Amino acid sequence: MARKLREMGILVFLISILLLTAPLTGIAAGIGEDYVRPAPRKTLSFSWPWNRKHSDGPQQVHISLAGEKHMRISWVTDDKSFPSLVEYGTSPGQYTESSDGENLSYSYLFYNSGKIHHVVIGPLEDDTIYYYRCGRQEPEFQFKTPPSKFPLTFAVVGDLGQTDWTASTLSHINDCQYDLHLLPGDLSYADYLQHLWDSFGELIQPYASARPWMVTEGNHEMESIPFIKSPFQSYNARWKMPYAESGSTSNLYYSFEVAGVHVIMLGSYTDYGEYSDQYAWLKADLAKVDRERTPWLLALLHVPWYNSNWAHQGEGDDMMAVVEPVLYAAGVDILIAGHVHAYERSERVYSGQLDSCGAIHITVGDGGNREGLALRYHHPKPIWSAFREASFGHGELKIVNATHAFWSWHRNDDHESLSSDEVWINSLASAGCLRSEMRDFSKIQIVP
Asked: Any bridge partners for residue 264, and if so which?
C-alpha cells in the first residue's frame, strides 16, 4: 500500500509540473477577450534602399482578377528595357499564349521606383493551373484560376505589414486550400519609406504570385504630402485592381464577381458622400447585381462600422450613415473591414440594432503589423458583438453553396494556426430577406 501511495504521489507531482510548465494555448489561456497574448517575437529585417539587392529578372510578382476569365500579372524590374510581356500555358515550360501590357514608374522625393509592369492575360479556363513567366525570363511561376461554381474559399486578412507575425500569418494562409485572398487595406506599412513597398512585394511574392490578391486601400496607403504628393500614388502604381472593368473611374473602389459571389471593394479614404462619384458608382453597381447568378453579396472596406474596441472608435460613423442604408437595401451578406488591430465578428445588425436581414460585420485588422495589437475593448460588450479577441490571425470564408457559408478565424499563436471562432452563415437570399416588399429600392437607384 505504501509503495502504491508513493507511486501515486510521484505521478501527481509530475502531472503538476507538466501543467505548470505547459504553454498557455487554447482554452488554458482563455479564448476571445480572455486570451493572453504571448510576448512579441522578433521582426523581419529588411535592407535600406541603398542596399536593396537588384535583379535582372522579375520581382514582386503578384496577380489579381481582371474581369471575367482574365488575370492581371504585375511585377517590377530594375531593367527599364524589360518587356511588359507574359507567356503562359497549362503545362510547365510550354507557353502556348502570350499577352503584352503596360508599364510605368514613379518618383517619390529621393526614391525612384523600378519599372512596374501590368499585363492582362486570358481568356482563361476556370479551376485550372497555369504556368507563366514574365518578360521571357525565368523563373517560371504558376497560379490556379478560381472555380466557376461553389464551393469557393477566400482567405481574409488585413493590416499585414512586414513582421515575423506577418510571415507566420502568410504561412498559415498558405496551408489553407483557398481560391482568392481578400485584403481590406493597409498592405506594406511603408508609410512614406518607398523601399518598404519593395520589401513587401518580395515578402508576399510566393503567395501573391500563385493566388489572386484582391485589395482595397487603407490609411497607410495614403502617403500624401500637401502641395507635393497626392495620396495613393505608390499604391495605385503597384496595385492595379479591376476598377475600369467594373465601371469605376477610380482604383480606390471597384467590384468583381467570382463563381456565385459579387464582391464590392469600397474606399474609406476617398469621397463617399451622397453626391460623390463613389456613391453613384456603388448604387449603379448594386443595381446590376443578379442574385440568381450571384446569390452571395460581400463588401470590403478599411474602417469598420461596428467596432467595440477602444482603437479607432467612431471613425467609420460618417461613412456608415451614408452607405449602410444602401448596402442594407441591396442585401449585403457580410461586410469585412480592417484598421482595428484585433478580431471581431458581429451578429446580423443594421443601424446599431440586431436585424436578421442585416449584414454580419467582421473586423480582421490583425495580420501582424509592427504597430501591435489593439488590446482594450469596451464593456459591457454590445448586443451585436458575437466574438472578439485581440490577437493576430486570419480568416477563411468558404462559400459552400447558394445558401450556406462557413466562416472561421484562426489565431496566429506561436507559429501555429488555431481555429478560435467558427460559425455557419445562411445567405440573406435563402432567408427571404430579398423579397421586394422587404427592400427599399429607392436606396439603390442610380440618382441620389
From this structure: 255, 299
Record the cell numbers describing residue 30, joined without a space: 482563455
Amino acid in position 248 = S
pLDDT at residue 20 tops 70: no
Helix (H) or strand (E) holding 206: helix 195-208
Please check the confidence at residue 140 and state whether its pLDDT lies above 90: yes
**Contacts of 248 by beta carbon, 8 Å cutoff, 6+ apart:** 254, 255, 281, 285
Residue 139, preceding bond cis, omega within 30 degrees?
Answer: yes
CA distance 348 to 358: 5
How far does CA 438 lie from the centroid of its chain? 31
312: annotated active-site residue: yes
pLDDT in tens, 298-333: 999 999 999 999 999 999 999 999 999 999 999 999
What type of residue sits at position 171? Answer: S
CA 292 – CA 339 distance, rounded (Å): 33
Q: pLDDT value at position 30? A: 57
Read off the pLDDT band of 50 (50, 70, 90): very low
Q: What is the mean pLDDT of the chain?
A: 89
Q: Smallest Cα–Cα separation from 387: which of 16, 35, 104, 5?
A: 35
| Residues 125, 69: Cα–Cα separation, whole Å | 7
At residue 14, does pLDDT exceed 60? no
Sign of dihedral through CA atoms 327, 330, 334, 338?
negative
CA-to-CA dists, residue 192 to 90, 111, 165, 189, angstroms: 40, 10, 22, 9
Neighbours of 145 (CB within 10 A): 22
Residue whose C-alpha cell is 462619384: 277
Distance (Å, whole) CA 150 – CA 9? 57
d(CA 287, CA 280): 11
Model confidence pLDDT, tens digit, residues 386-422: 999 999 999 999 999 999 999 999 998 755 556 689 9
Identified catalytic residue from 312, 339, 341, 394: 312
Q: What is the DSSP string of 212-241?
A: -EEE---GGG---BTTTB-TTHHHHHH---
